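Supplementary Note 3. Input sequence used for the single-chain structure prediction.
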Amino acid sequence: MDLKPQHLVEYNFDDQDWNVLLTTPILAGLTVAHAHASGWTGVQEEYRVLANCFEETADDHAVIVYLKSEVLKRGLLDEKRGTNGTELKSLAQGQILMVRGLLERKSNSEIYRAYTDFLGKVLSRVAGAAREGGLFNAEPNKISDLEMQVMADLLKMLD
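The predicted structure, written as discrete structure tokens, is reproduced below.
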């Protein structure tokens, strides 16, 4: 029995499709978190912010509401992932390409925009979670140039 809301069933996403759609924002967020060392407390803050991205908000599109609830229900944020930034980026890029193809083939521009907006929010929130460098993380810019480049690289793949 399919328990997905009717408006999500119509897009014909199978379980493998949903797995890609659910895990990609997590991988992309982790990729940004590992792009530039922010110390132990910084990493903890980036992980906390990543988890907070999956809390439902009033302006969430129905697809994003479902995505967030499934990520939490399946415990996907708790899965251990490698900490090698290069490997994470490569994996995230591959998944983003799969997401792009899925959304182009099986959804409409509204769903595509909602998903890409959510992904962009995840990336920017994680990148802005911890100050970079300096004594006591006193650097005025929270987002490093490297994090900005990684975010741009990942989001460019959806254009």
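Residues 85-106 form the longest helix (22 residues). The mean pLDDT is 84.
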